[in-house]
Amino acid sequence: MTILDETGEIELFLFTLKDVTEHKRDEELIKHQATFDALTNLPNRFLALDRLSQLINEAHRDTKRVAILFLDLDDFKKINDTLGHDIGDKLLIEVAVRLRSDLRNGDTVGRLGGDEFIILLGGLDDAADASPIAENLLNHFKDAFIIENRELILTSSVGIAVYPDDGDNSSQLLRNADSAMYHSKKLGRNTYSYFTEAMNQEVSRRLTLEEQMHGALERGEFRLCYQPQVNVTNRRISGVEALLRWNNPVLGDVSPDEFISIAEQTGQIVPIGQFVLTEALTMAVRWQAMLERSFTMAVNLSPRQFRDPNLVAFIEQAIEKSGISSENLELEITEGVLISGYDYIEDALASLSDLGVNIAMDDFGTGYSSLSYLRSYPFNVLKIDRSFINDITVHPADRELVNAAIAMAHSLGLKVVAEGVETEEQLAHLATQGCELAQGYLFSKPGTAEEITTMIEKQ
Q1: What is the dihedral of CA 422, 425, 427, 429, to 10 degrees?
Q2: Which pLDDT tens digit goes with each residue over 387-403?
Q3: Alpha carbon distance 35, 46 (integer Å)
Q4: Predicted TM-score of the model (pTM)
Q5: Residue 16's pLDDT is what?
Q6: Which domain holds residue 98?
């Protein structure tokens, strides 16, 4: 402010001073919080993608390549579930430190969220230049992480997308690197994969499946078919296995191998499984009344269904509502259910056994520790996988394995079902070994409820 004297001349100036240091500090803090991950202090998604855009512009100008590595920690959820989120957070911080130490000057590592990280490599001459860095990252994870005196072994899966080969913008490259990472998961994890167009199509297919599966149960798109289980001695139908099928207006008939895994991962397998059990028991009661003798309904249970705390209660209610005897329900599980070793799985199996429900080990022979499972869990039935039955009349090794499996099951008091029986020669050999039941194309392909009813009426 200017102050004048009586003659109008400037007499003095007045200034107001204000300390803006704290304001500037607050601005810097807000900016940092907006662009850096609070836990690991790595660049967050916003800043990482902004840096990727800058690298793309530089690469375009200099005719270079940029690689984006999408890294996801394998089975990190188990650490949070078993050791707690505090341990999980400390582990993520150590992962960030380890990732930073592996990079060249000018490279960027960021955290996208959860257990997902992004590594940006600029100035590459060739797409293959990213391979040594990816291998180094994976090898660095071989050393245990020491968290609160615990040695934690952690692996990761990496997907790689390269500019301009796999995309010309940051969002497309990120999406394609994500696709490549999921491909690494499918390969068995603890590896890296480059993006291909086939992966992109696979991801697009998966997204469509997830979208169409939402509401499919309410729209009545799921149905059951059944494959008979036949008494080896007299060839009479003693039961059936319920098999889920899906026909969608957009996708047509979708293979169970394709949609079951998605239903499990999204959690939709729980209501779908309840639908399967209810429908199957309704038909079992009907067929048992027609035959006027015991009739077994076999239903598959997935690993995800065992995480439902209401599983046993629902099965018990479904049995009571249908009026069927619990001993006529057979629940088939694979080693995938048991491999985690969670207590709630053992408790559920014990409760189901107490209900009088039969429990079958499905796909026997395809895992690595079936013998210990048969000894530790209340199984009543052993189902020998079709891959062994297929060559029992051709390859002596398969024949002896099947013979040993049948003898072992009988010594444990288990009934044996042979899957995939397609020839009279296979059936004859199974009969000599005392195998009780068989199912396969020799008797019938999976059929509708009406087709199975017709077969039963003929008997």
Answers
A1: -140
A2: 889 989 888 988 999 99
A3: 6
A4: 0.68
A5: 63
A6: 21-200
